[in-house]
Amino acid sequence: IRLDRVAHAYLFAGTRGVGKTTMARVLAKALNCEHGPTPDPCGTCSACLEITQGASMDIVEIDGASNRGIDEIRDLRETLRYLPSRGRYKVYIIDEVHMLTKEAFNALLKTLEEPPPHVVFIFATTELDKIPHTIISRCQRFEFKRVSLSGIVSQLEHIINNEGISISSTSLLRIAKAAEGSMRDAQSLFDQVVAYTGIEVDDREVGHLLGNVGSETLAQCLSAIIRQDAETALRTVDALQDEGHDAVSIIRALQEGLRHLIVLKTTDHPAELIPLSEADIDLLQHVAESASVEDIYGLFQVLVTSEQSLRGAGNPFLVLEMAVIRMARIGRVSSLDSILGALQNLEKGLPEPAAALQPIDIISEPPAAPAAAPPPAAPQQTAPVENEEPPRDRLQPPAPPLEPDAPPVPKAEPAPEPVSTLEPMPTSAVAPDDFWQALQENVTERRPMLGGFLQPGQVLTHSDTELVIGFAKGDDFFRTNLMERENLNVVQAAAEAVSGRSLQVKIVSLDDPKGHRDQAEEGPVEASRSPSANEELQQRKREVIQSVVDIFEGTIIT
Ligand SMILES: [Zn+2]
């Protein structure tokens, strides 16, 4: 306006209640104010007042949802040739413009190609991607952001100060949060609350009206889950159900609670990132102290999976309760940092372990190149094979030494497998997603902790005879644990139970998907060592295992 470069069409895009039509009316005033055109319309002249009252003949507001056909747009075009009655411009504000039909857009496009000089269009939409590019390219486009939480709160504070309403900051935050970035929703929620409770607003009434899960109950439930107290966790969930919350909102509240716990554990100024009162944050802080970030993340994954199966479930509360039990029974996962630290100490304490035995390999990526020299005592062992061997073996108890006179079995070169085996090949009658879900549940029934370990994995191959599960590099901890023979057997049994046929299960790293070939290689590699080299290797393995047992105060079970 200041540069006298007013466009003929503006497009205001953004979520509902962020001020698009309000801004459109302000722009109309700026164009038609008697003291304008001016970026600062006076708001008091008769042109401005008429616009405020919705009585201006020169401002035409059209609801795109109810005037979406070509006939309405043709009628509109008919009116364009009339000059404005008193202002400088005729301003057409079309709200929800994405609702127009294709034909209506085409008719509109013709107008936009040759706009009359006295006409300004302002289109408002919540769904920018439904508007044809031909229209968008002829408009000046503005994208309206959601109103920030603090922006909504300060606007509401302005209202309570003007109207003498007493409300706690917790309730204000709850209302602002429920509005999800829409100032209009925040104001109407606030009006409802005041209409219901009067000017002395009670926190509990607000929670009830908004359908929020109370922070106290939420903290109780999360704390019980983390303490692995399934009974208390179930009781709190039942109590929430009695209060009238549905399964979806409870699961979302739990997810949000876990999110807050992670924020509390990973940021220096969590209060700015958690829209809760100080007292509620303190409550969660206590819960956060008894769990690691990895624990919480594992719980979060369970909820995400459960929320998906909640949709279409006959009894959603049953799914919710199973999720709660599962979370309460997931084994505590030591943080990777603490394991890494312990293993590094172990490495320092041991006398120069051979390359294959470097305990750090247990969780770090195996070296890609044959950098390490072969151990002198195992001359037949070639470095590349040593390095390709999966680290799983190193945590296992020593195998009985080979008979000294056992002839070395010649090592067979594995035939390279076609890359296509990595493509998902679901040949089972069960849909791939259902199979993966069912497999996880079956494993969880057998060993709850292993079920949790499986979650970050993904099915790479699922054929009649083979199931290959891949893990990203960051999930090496889960992968190596699952690759242990005993654990692999559990997964294998579960896979066979779910698919109803015999399946070869392989656990691989996504970064090294050919790794699953190594399992087939395992036998020959072991046997190809000379007896004395083998014994020395076994001795070193025993040392490493004993050190691991000492550090983690564990017991060898098998
Ligand atoms: Zn004015």
General description of the model:
Helices cover 51% and strands 8% of the residues. The protein has helices at residues 20-32, 46-53, 70-79, 102-113, 133-136, 149-163, 169-178, 183-197, 203-210, 215-226, 230-242, 247-266, 278-289, 293-310, 316-329, 336-349, 383-388, 432-446, 448-454, 476-483, 485-499, 516-528, 531-551; strands at residues 9-14, 59-63, 90-95, 119-125, 140-144, 458-462, 466-471, 504-509. Strands 2-3-4-1-5 form a 5-stranded parallel β-sheet, with helices on one face. A hairpin with a 3-residue loop joins strand 6 (458-462) and strand 7. It is an alpha/beta fold and 558 residues long. It has 4 domains: 9-144, P-loop containing nucleotide triphosphate hydrolases (Rossmann fold); 149-210, Helicase, Ruva Protein, domain 3 (Orthogonal Bundle), CATH 1.10.8; 215-329, Up-down Bundle (Zinc Finger, Delta Prime, domain 3), CATH 1.20.272; 381-404 and 417-558, 2-Layer Sandwich (GMP Synthetase, Chain A, domain 3), CATH 3.30.300. The structure holds zinc ion. Zinc ion binds next to helix 2.
Give the structure's gist in a few sentences.
This protein is an alpha/beta fold and 558 residues long. The protein has helices spanning 20-32, 46-53, 70-79, 102-113, 133-136, 149-163, 169-178, 183-197, 203-210, 215-226, 230-242, 247-266, 278-289, 293-310, 316-329, 336-349, 383-388, 432-446, 448-454, 476-483, 485-499, 516-528, 531-551; strands at residues 9-14, 59-63, 90-95, 119-125, 140-144, 458-462, 466-471, 504-509.
